[in-house]
Fold each of these.
Amino acid sequence: MDSKLFSLEIRHIDAKTGARYGVLHTPHGDCEVPMFMPVGTNATVKCLSPEELKEAGSGVVLANTYHLHLRPGEEIVKQAGGVQKFMNYPGPMLTDSGGFQVFSLQKTRKISEQGVEFRNIYNGDKEFFTPEKVIAIEEAIGADIIMSFDECIPYPVDYEYARKSTERTIRWAKRGLAAHHRPDQALFGIVQGSSFRDLREKCAKELAALDFPGYSIGGTSIGEPKDVCFQMIEDAIRYLPPEKPRYLMGVGSLDYLLGGVERGVDMMDCVLPTRIARHGALMTSAGRINIRNAKYKDDFSPLDSECDCYTCRHYTKAYLHHLAMTGEEFGKRLNSLHNIRFLIRVMEGARKAIQEDRFLEYEQMILARYGDPRGF
Ligand SMILES: [Zn+2]
C-alpha cells in the first residue's frame, strides 16, 4: 500500500478517554473519523441513492465480497471499472472478507487449512474460498479498503477451538498479504481470538508485526455480554499500532458504537439502521420508535425535531405512519434516510466532543436520552 494514497491523520485524542478524532485519507477522498459506515451489501445501500448517502454525510460505504462474488460476479464489477464506478458512489468504499457469511453457512461449509468449501446458495455449485482467492476477488471489486480472510469465531466457544482458529486466521492473514498486489488498496488484518485475552493479544501482536495499513476487530457483537465485548476491543487495541486505523466490524447498537469510539475505534459499520428502517423502526434523539404505532396516525410533528435529514425537514410522523401501514416503497426510503443520517449525526457530535475533550459527557448524554440503547 502506498502511504501517500492511504493514511490516518490523527488530529486530537480526547483528554479522558481513548477516543480519537482524525482524517482518513483514501484514493477516493478524505473522511473524518470516528465514522459510521452504511452497508451496501449488493453494491447498493437498500432504498438509497449514492447522492442521498452523500447528502446524509456518508464517508466510507461497505459492500460485501461474498454477495458480489455470487452475484453478479467480481469480473462484472471489474469490467465496470470497480465497485465505486459500478454503483456510482463518489467516495471511498470497503469490502469485507466474506468470512462472516461463509462461516454462517454452518451446514454446508468445510474448513481446512487451505480454505473453506461451501455451496453457492443460488445454484448449489461448490465454491472454495482461500485467503488468496478472497484477495483476488477483492482486487477485482476494487474497493479502497479490503479485508483479509478470517474465521469469525462463534460465541461462546471453547479455548482450544478459539486457539486453533485464531492461529489459522493469523496464517491466512500472512497468505492474504503475500497475495495482495494493488498499491491503491489498503488491506486490513482482522484481530480474532474470541473472549480469550491471551489469544486477542497474540493475534493483535502478530498482525501488528506484519505492518498492515489498518486493523479490524472481529468476532464481537455476536451475542456476548457488553463488558466482554468492550474487553475484547481493549485487548486488541492495546497491541495495535496507534497510527493505523481501527475498524470495529458489524457493531450495531448505540452503546456499542460509542463504547468503541471511547476505546479508540475509528470506523464502524452495521446493516441494522437500514434493515429496521424498512420495518418502521426509527432511531430518534428521544429513543427508538415504531412508526406503525397507532398513536402516530394523526401526529403532524416531524419525526425528530433535532434531525436535519430530508425526511425530518419535509415529512410528518402521520405521513410516515401512513406510508408504513400501506407498505409504500417511498416510506422505506424516507425511513432509511433518517436512520442513516441519525447515526452519522451521532458520529459528527462525537467528533466535535472529542476535539473539545468532552467525549465521555457526550456519550452519557446521548445514551441517557436514547433510553435503552440496545433498543434498535
Ligand atoms: Zn431525520
Amino acid sequence: MKIRPKTFFVAIIVCLLIALLLWPINIEHTKPKHIKIVTTIFPAYDFARTISANTDVSLKLLIKPGVDLHNYEPTPQDIINIKESDIFIYNGGESEKWVEKIIADINQSTDVIRMMDLVQLKIESDEHSDEHSDAPDYDEHIWTSPKNVIKISSAIANTIANRTPNNATTVRRNYDRFESSLKKLDTSFQELAAAKTGTLVVADRFPFRYFVDDYGFDYIAAFPGCAEQTEASPKTIAELIEKVNQNPNKIIFKLELSNGKTAQTIAEATKSKILVWHSAHNISQSDFDSGKTYLDFMKDNLTNLKEALYDYSAS
Ligand SMILES: [Zn+2]
C-alpha cells in the first residue's frame, strides 16, 4: 500500500501530540515523592508543621479548628486521608478509639505515630475513669507538658527525616530550634514554680495533670480531666470561691473554647478576674488563620500563670 506524504505527515503530528501529552506524566514519575502527613489533633499538627517548615511535605489536620475532639466522628474522607498518608500521627487516648479500627487495615507503607506510646502515662483521676473497664484509663492530655512535647516531637522529626531524606537537613534544623524553644519554656515554668506560690483555681475542666505534676503547681478545678458535666455542684462552687478569696491576686481560669459559665459565676461572687488557660486541645478558626502555634499558647499560659501566682512574702 502506498502511503501518501500528507497522511504520513499527519501521522507524525499525531504521534508528536501523544508524546507531548504523556510527557508531564513521565516527569512526575522521576520527581521525589511528596510526603503526606495526616494528623488527628491540633497539637500533633502543630508539632509536625513546625518540624517540616520550609520543606515540600504536605500536612492535613483532620479535627478542624473549633471542633471538640472528645466527640469527634471521622468522615469517609478522613478515613481515605489516613489510608493514603505516608505518616499518620494520632494521640491514641479515650477520644480516639475510632482511630484503632481504621489503622487495623492501614497501608503497610504508612508510618504510624501514636503519641501516647512516647511518654510516661498517668492514670486518670477516679471520678472520670470508666468503672466497667478492667484496663486503666490513661489521661490523654500528654501534650500539656512541654517535657512530653520534647519527646513526641523528637520522634516526629526522626520519622519525617527518615521518610524524606531530601528534607532531612531542614527537618533537623527545625527540630533543634523547636527543642530549644521547648527547653526555654520548660525552664521558665520551673523558675515560676520555684519563685511563686498559690493555688491555681480553674473553674472548668482540667486537662493539665501532666503539666501540674511535672512542675509542681497546686490547683483546684471544677471538673476532673475532660469530664462531660458542665454544671458544677454548689459544694464545688463554694470550694472554688474559698480558694479564690485566699489568693491576693484574685485570678480564676477558664479553658479556651469554653463557655466559661462556672468561671463567670465565681468571678461575680468574688470580684475576681478571668484568664484563659490554653490546653491546646484545639484552636479557634481565627487563631488558626492567624498562624497561632502551641508555643504561642504556652507563652500566653506562662504570662497568665505568673499573674495568678504570688510571691511567698505575700502569703
Ligand atoms: Zn480533653
